[in-house]
Design the sequence.
């Protein structure tokens, strides 16, 4: 081989090696840096978007916080309508309320009977308590008592059946009703 040929081999070999070093350096050193930069930029964009969403939620929560007194009042009302009861099922308290309501409307509330709670199929945390009671008194007063029982007193009850009769000027109404309790305890709030 001639010197010129050897010089050409070294020249092409050197150029090829230089090109390989540049291309390899790009793929091994520079390319990953661009990929890392793109990843960081995408993560930053995602974080900015998430931050925007969270700030919007924070604003909504701040608006809701202004109504916290109303929410507490609603919760207290709901707790009275659907009390928590594990052992007594709140029946003694409810029967006392019925007696007080009877005194208020000048009717005789008697003949209490309560059955064991039965879990509702659609709402497993709520149980229904079948209750029977008899009310004696004037028709108008009994009507006022039943209206108060069904619509205004705090405990949620559902009248399932009613039978009435009259004897010696007094009306008697036998009610079969259902009261409800929950097995889920919520924190008590003061309204």
Sequence:
């Amino acid at each position: 081989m001639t010197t010129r040929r050897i010089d050409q081999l070294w020249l092409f070999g050197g150029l090829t090696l230089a090109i390989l070093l540049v291309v390899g350096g790009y793929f091994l050193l520079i390319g990953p840096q661009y990929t890392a930069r793109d990843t960081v930029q995408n993560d930053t964009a995602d974080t900015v978007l998430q931050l925007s969403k969270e700030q919007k939620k924070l604003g909504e929560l701040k608006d809701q916080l202004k109504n916290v007194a109303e929410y507490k009042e609603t919760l207290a009302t709901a707790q009275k309508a659907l009390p928590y009861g594990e052992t007594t099922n709140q029946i003694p308290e409810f029967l006392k309320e019925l007696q007080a309501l009877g005194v208020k409307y000048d009717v005789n509330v008697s003949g209490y009977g309560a059955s064991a709670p039965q879990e509702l199929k659609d709402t497993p945390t709520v149980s229904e308590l079948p209750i029977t009671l008899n009310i004696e008194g004037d028709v108008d007063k009994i009507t006022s008592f039943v209206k108060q029982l069904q619509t205004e007193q705090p405990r949620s009850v559902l009248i399932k059946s009613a039978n009435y009769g009259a004897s010696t000027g007094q009306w008697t109404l036998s009610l079969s009703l259902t009261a409800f309790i929950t097995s889920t305890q919520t924190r008590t709030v003061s309204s």
Remarks:
- Strands lie at 108-114, 118-119, 126-137, 157-167, 170-182.
- Helices lie at 3-65, 68-81, 91-104, 139-152.
